[in-house]
Amino acid sequence: MTTADPQFDGMYGPFTITSTDREEVQRYRICLLISGVSLSAGLLQWWQLGGQLAWLWILPLASAMGLALHWIHIYLKPLHRSLQLFWLLGCLGWAALLVLAGPSNALSTLQRQPLWILAVGPLFAAMTGIGFKEFFCFRRPEAVGLTLLLPVALLGRLLGLIGNGPCWFLVLFAGLLLVVLAVRKFGMEAAADVGDKSVFAYLDSQREVAGP
User: Fold this and answer.
1) Which class for 206: exposed (0-12), middle (13-18), buried (19 or more C-beta within 10 A)?
2) Which of 58, 87, 113, 171 is paired with 34 by a 20 to 30 Å CA distance?
């Protein structure tokens, strides 16, 4: 904290947005952008060139999502932990798919056998959670699209309500919306993403009082 750090009046008292806060917000936004670009580029490469190398985009997608969930600011720790758990389960599901089907056949296997969505879907559930958080906080229309399209696409395909083409087109559209969301966030003040730090401090104090 420095004398130049801006101070705000929060619900439970004054708080300061520090350089560390600003760095975390910048990293969060960069990770969202990498996630959106990786998802979109991976699908486009899959369609144009096949899945032999397109699966490599899963690596930056999963890594960036994990880091975004590390630096995201969410008041409710159970919700935060739940999104991180979804991310972990999704990563394990992708790892299982890559090992059992082979990297070059992973995406085609996912296309032929929709039940694999149960394994890899939690990663997208975590992404949906981020979209919901962004909509709840900022009412961005692209966040609404991201939050709605991923469940519709993957659950619709899993239940046999839509085919492969519409499913992955909707996922691609969701990825592009995530890119738009991330790019637009770079023009916002860091304080908007940090939120009211006095609420975090208050909730932490309540947990300490409650004990283990």
Assistant:
1) exposed
2) 113
DSSP 31-88: HHHHHHHHHHHHHHHHHHH-HHHHGGGHHHHHHHHHHHHHH---S-HHHHHHHHHHHH
Residue 3's SS3 state is: coil
pTM, full prediction? 0.89
Task: For residue 26, give the H/E element and its range.
Answer: helix 19-49
Torsion sign over Cα 135, 139, 144, 145: negative
Ramachandran angles phi, psi of 206, nearest 5°? -65, -40
| Cβ-proximal residues to 43 (8 Å cutoff; 6+ apart), any chain | 54, 168, 171, 172, 175
**Residue for token pair 């930056």:** 60
Largest Cα–Cα separation, the chain: 59
> What would the pLDDT profile of 25-81 be if each residue is shown by its tens digit?
999 999 999 999 999 999 999 999 988 999 999 999 999 999 999 999 887 888 999
